[in-house]
């Protein structure tokens, strides 16, 4: 028997309630935002799977749907935002675009059609260098509010903000590269 062990956690109810207040509810009365532990959040993936034993010997190959961790790194808190089902198109379009054929078996590579919508990744709680950050209710609240605020901004304003950010990054990179080259030539 294959046994997969993974670290799972639930966000405290107080954090979930706070992010629910910050982001509101969807048409089903569920929160627009939620906080999940990477190792706890599973998603359906369809395809050819190869199962091996502890010594890496082939046990079997099978074409099927499996639930696998959705986010990496798995040992981080992730904030998700609910996306309505119409975002994914109709069920017919979904299956037309996501089904694959393996050994004559048709399998939906991204799982079943998300008829009630789906929660999609919005933000990973970690430092700029990828280090772990403990779950912080204020940060979750701020992120939900920031995402909602940005969604209400006109497209043109978002495009200009992105262009300005990228230009600033390029200037900072050029400045840092010039400093490194100046130091190299002066040494």
Q: Tell me, rounded to a whole number, the average pLDDT.
A: 88
- Cα radius of gyration in angstroms: 22 Å
Helix vs. strand class: alpha+beta
Number of helices: 4
Q: What percentage of residues falls in helices of 4 or more residues?
A: 25-40%
What overall geometry do the principal axes of the alpha carbons give? Answer: extended
Beta-strand share of residues: 25-35%
Described by strand count, sense and barrel closure, the largest sheet is: 3 strands, antiparallel
Q: Tell me the span between the first and last alpha carbons.
A: 63 Å
Quick one: how many beta strands?
7
Order of helices and strands: HEEEEHEEEHH
Give the spatial strand order of the biggest sheet. 1-4-7
**Which residues form runs of ≥5 with pLDDT under 50?**
none
Describe the structure.
It is a single chain. The chain has 187 residues and is of the alpha+beta class. The chain is 35% helix and 27% strand. The strands form 3 sheets. Strands 1-4-7 form a 3-stranded antiparallel sheet. A two-stranded antiparallel sheet has the order 2-3. α1 (13-23) packs parallel to α3 (137-151).
